[in-house]
Amino acid sequence: MPRLSAILLLVLSFPTACVVSQTRYDELQAELDQTRADLAERDEQLANIVRERSALQESVEQMTEALATVRARNAEAARRMQSYQDLLARFRSLIDAGRLQVKIERGRMVVVLPSDVLFRSGDAFLSPDGQRAVREITAVLVTITEREFQVEGHTDNVPIRTALYPSNWELSTARAVNVVKTMIEAGMAPGNVSAAGYGEYRPTLPNTSEENRRANRRIEIVVVPDLSGLPGFEELNELSREENP
């Protein structure tokens, strides 16, 4: 009888043990699921951190590159400003004598010579004084490295009709060509200089007086390239306005 009681007690207690084990299993499964969810969240956070770090690194690299570009552009602007100031200094005696001007026009550094200094009226051949002036100017320009020059001829609006120069187009172009030839004779590399004629179509002043027409009759030696896209151009332009009020 005691043996039967023990067996009965064991049988009755087994379902309770199973219930306890199932409950614990469910608890552990829930903990496991939560742990997996936590790990997935941590993995996503880590992936976000990695992406953010990568984006930050890329941003730093872009900023570093942009800063280097700005520094290089500013250095180039400073160099060109110094070149302009050096050009003013070297041409100072001619500027003060009224024989030329150095300006910034259309975003370009320009040496302006009155035609009356270089040519006789209606003629495209340089006078002796004109040849000396062009040679003197060329001696300075050849020291400007990595630059090319375009010589531009301009006239007033008074018509000319001769066998050599049927219009101001021919006169202005012939004058520019003769200046180029003299510059080459004075040491300018032929591949660094070109000629163009604009006739009366790019006046600096309205052709309403003899004084204005005299100003429009000119040779311009343009330093290429264009400066207007550079940092510091406004300061350079302001300096030009101060020199040529």
Short structural summary:
With 245 residues, the protein is an alpha+beta fold. It contains seven helices and five strands; from the N terminus they run H-H-E-E-H-H-E-H-E-H-E-H.
Structure description:
- It is a single chain.
- The chain folds into two domains: 1-76; 91-243, OmpA-like domain (60s Ribosomal Protein L30, Chain: A), CATH 3.30.1330.
- 60% of the residues lie in helices and 13% in strands.
- The chain has seven helices and five strands.
- It has a five-stranded mixed beta sheet with strand order 1-2-5-3-4.
Keywords:
about 240 residues, alpha+beta, 60s Ribosomal Protein L30, Chain: A, 2 domains, 5-stranded mixed beta sheet, rod-shaped
Protein topology:
Layout lengths: L1 H89 L1 H5 L4 E5 L2 E7 H4 L9 H14 L6 E7 L13 H18 L7 E5 L12 H7 L1 E7 L8 H11 L2
Parallel strand pairs: 3-4
Antiparallel strand pairs: 1-2, 2-5, 3-5
Instruction: Write down the secondary-structure element order.
Output: HHEEHHEHEHEH
Q: What structural class do helix, strand and pairing data support?
A: alpha+beta
CATH 2nd-level architecture of the largest domain: 2-Layer Sandwich
Instruction: Catalogue the unreliable spans.
Output: none
Mean pLDDT across the residues is: 84
Q: How would a textbook summarize the main sheet?
A: 5 strands, mixed
Number of strands: 5
What is the general shape?
Answer: rod-shaped
What helical percentage do the residues reach?
55-70%
Estimate the strand proportion: 5-15%
Summed up, the domain count is 2
Number of helices: 7
Q: Report the end-to-end length measured between terminal Cα atoms.
A: 131 Å
CATH-assigned fold name of the largest domain: 60s Ribosomal Protein L30, Chain: A
Strand order in the sheet with the most strands? 1-2-5-3-4
CATH class of the largest domain: Alpha Beta
CATH superfamily name of the largest domain? OmpA-like domain
